[in-house]
Amino acid sequence: MSAGLAGDPAPVPRDPGLQPERTRLAWLRTILAMTVAAALAVRVALLGVAEASGMLPTACAILSWLGFVVVAHRRMRAFGTPQPPRLTHRSALLAAGSVTMVAVFGAALVS
Question: Is the pTM of this model over 0.85?
């Protein structure tokens, strides 16, 4: 039977189950991992292991971390609604770019 014909039962509302909770926890785990990476970057910069050239990667890692926290916070707040909106392309690119940049700047500090 095709959908939309007269006499078809009304669509059943979607039961998300625990999926929103699992997704929220995944965002929180990623924030935690990025927080550790940003804190280690700050520690390296404060201990003087990295010279002045290490300050730029540290500042960029912190800015990338802040960008990710903003996106993650907005996304987790959206899960409180009955039908959360889709993640926009802009937010997805910002989140992926932030994670990548923290990794790159962390590698720059270590080397």
Answer: no
